[in-house]
Specification:
Oligomer: single chain
Number of strands: 8
CATH architecture of one domain: Orthogonal Bundle
Number of helices: 12
Shape: globular
Helix content: 25-40%
CATH superfamily of one domain: Tyrosine recombinase, N-terminal domain
Strand content: 15-25%
Structural class: alpha+beta
Distance between the termini: 74 Å
CATH class of one domain: Mainly Alpha
Strand order of the largest sheet: 1-2-3
Radius of gyration: 26 Å
Order of helices and strands: EEEHHHHHHHHHEEEHHHEE
Largest sheet: 3 strands, antiparallel
Length: about 350
């Protein structure tokens, strides 16, 4: 039986107190099979000043209401509606299976790259070769070609988006048009990795707080989000371990995807004396204070080409370790950079 597509009704209603709000109305069958009217508040007029903005915000809910209708092949589903439904169901705060940082990045990529190009196209009309050609022609605002890593992330997000449509049976199984899109993530420039003497020179130019952060980053390989969320209570002095249980991104604290421990046995005897309770995590903006000038004072360190301090010393340490004849490891003197 052919189902009727519901566009619903969007109206602006007045409240006794507070700003007016947008309300969305539709009908559906209850558990007894009786047709009943449903309502949902979309937001206030301060959040969505115009009706067009409110209509865009309600697209995700409209897609949920018409899930059964969208499974029929004759029903047209624009990519814009698929994007709105994906944001409504997968990128909300309640969707704790994705980190806070991932939700922010996905929303930005959908808004900036994917939606403007593919919004009006039916999801069944997206072609592999067209997407591949579009990725190769992408440029930044200044006209420079977009980095391969960014293109690869856009390609991966589009694949996730169409898998979302397949999961809701709006596309047939195996009909993801992004599966065969070719896009590598090879970097254009070889990153500069700091030598141990350069890291030592940099540490001498930093204050105690930043010296400790860079020292931890270079010797343990912590991510920036994990580093900024550390507290003194995370340090196990008796076992010389650092418990990594949380991360911070744009001032939002979240749990890490996989809790782990960092070994501090090589670092603990050299810790500088640091004062402070450590009850509040260090904010991202504080880490940049004094860091760039320290690079200049430290000597000939190419600040614009540093990959990250967390990978520099860790890579040096992994390159110095090679299997010995006895099955253990021994250290090899690294070749200095020319």
């Amino acid at each position: 039986m052919r189902l009727r597509y519901q566009r619903g009704c969007l109206r602006c209603i007045q409240r006794k107190s507070g700003p007016d709000c947008w309300e969305f109305l539709w009908r559906e069958n209850d558990v007894a099979g009786k047709r009943v009217r449903r309502t949902a508040v979309i937001g206030t007029v301060e959040q969505y000043p115009t009706k067009d903005l409110a209509q865009a915000a309600v697209n995700g809910l409209r897609m949920c209401i018409n899930e059964d209708r969208n499974r029929q092949r004759e029903q047209r589903i624009p990519v814009a509606d698929l994007v709105d439904h994906y944001i409504q169901t997968e990128l909300v705060e309640e969707a704790d299976w994705r980190s806070h940082a991932t939700r922010i990045v996905y929303r930005e990529f959908l808004k900036r790259w994917i939606r403007p190009r593919w919004a009006d196209l039916d999801i069944r009309d997206v072609r592999t070769v067209v997407v591949e050609r579009w990725l190769r022609q992408m440029h930044r605002v200044d006209g420079a070609p977009l980095a391969n890593a960014t293109r690869a992330k856009i390609r991966s997000l589009m694949s996730v988006l169409f898998n979302h449509a397949i999961r809701y049976e709006w596309l047939e199984q195996g009909k993801n048009p992004i599966t065969l899109v070719r896009q590598g993530a090879k970097r254009k420039n070889i990153p500069t990795v700091l030598e141990p003497p350069e890291i030592q020179s940099l540490l001498l130019q930093l204050g105690s707080c930043f010296r400790l952060m860079i020292l931890l980053d270079a010797t343990t390989g912590l991510r920036r989000s994990e580093l900024f969320a550390l507290k003194w209570s995370d340090v196990d002095f008796s076992n010389l371990e650092l418990n990594v249980t949380r991360s911070i991104y744009l001032r939002a604290i979240a749990t890490v995807k996989q809790k782990h421990r960092a070994n501090l046995s090589q670092l603990m005897p050299r810790w500088p004396p640091i004062s402070g309770s450590g009850k509040k995590p260090v904010l991202i903006r504080k880490q940049t204070i004094g860091y760039s000038p320290a690079l200049t004072r430290a000597g000939n360190i190419p600040s614009g080409q540093i990959l990250s301090s967390r990978k520099s010393f860790v890579r040096q340490r992994s390159e110095r370790e090679s299997p010995s004849d006895s099955g253990g490891t021994h250290f090899v003197t690294p070749t200095p950079r020319s």
